[in-house]
What we know:
The protein is α/β, with parallel strands linked by helices.
Amino acid sequence: xxxxxxxSIPKPLQGSTERLQRNAFESWRxxxxxxxxxxxxxxxxxxxxxxxxGFLHWPQLNRNSLGTPLINHAWTAVRQATTAxxxxxxxxxxxxxxxxxxxxxxxxxxxxxxxxxxxxRIETNLDSEIRDWSDERLRDWIQRQRxxxxxxxxxxxxxxxxxxxxxxxxxxxxxxxxxxxxWVVYDAHRSxxxxxxxxxxxxxxxxxxxxxHSGGRRQAYVVGAxxxxxxxxxxxxxxxxxxxxxxxxxxxxxxxRMGWRxxxxxxxxxxxxxxxxxxxxx
Length: 282
């Protein structure tokens, strides 16, 4: 049994989206053999990419009437594909550094054994593929992004780390649309599961992209039929409770209760959140 399985539902590998996703895949491959990676879905190029990078591939996913893959089937299918103790769902354009493994190991050993881990992403621009980069060059570049670039708003959630026995019953959310990610955090809070912020430890780099496949950002996240259906299934938007952690992983590798720290963190996030809102009306 492996410790960690990283799984994702990629978009079709074509155009600029192919480069973004290949960069993410390459960073996942370099996490090492102890991490199983599963690519789900039968979009163009996904099966070939899985073979090329040495990942597992699960082609069949249930879809809604508009053809969008459903989160619940993906999160169920991955349990059939691997026996890993931990699962990390990640959007297919996110690059991780090796600190992800450290954080996952700390939580795997945590006596609580019930947790949901999330973290803020860093927006970065990468116009080339990293496949031919040395490990040292990639590591140095990631560290520069961590220092030089700003984190995105805490409402932007691009990955979820959790133990195998959690999230066995997830609604029929459409992937890549609004509101389902807030529900994941909200459900942890209401179930008494600690929500651990990994931002201090884990670097998660997001490569900006358009949302033409879903009719635009506002359509995908707010006003579109699939976003509204996700909101209905979630029982609301849960924007506030769905964006805050109850614990955090500190620089010394200790899981610490958030306590009063959530307030200055929320205040610091206001400018980022306002900028995010501006992108939804452009």
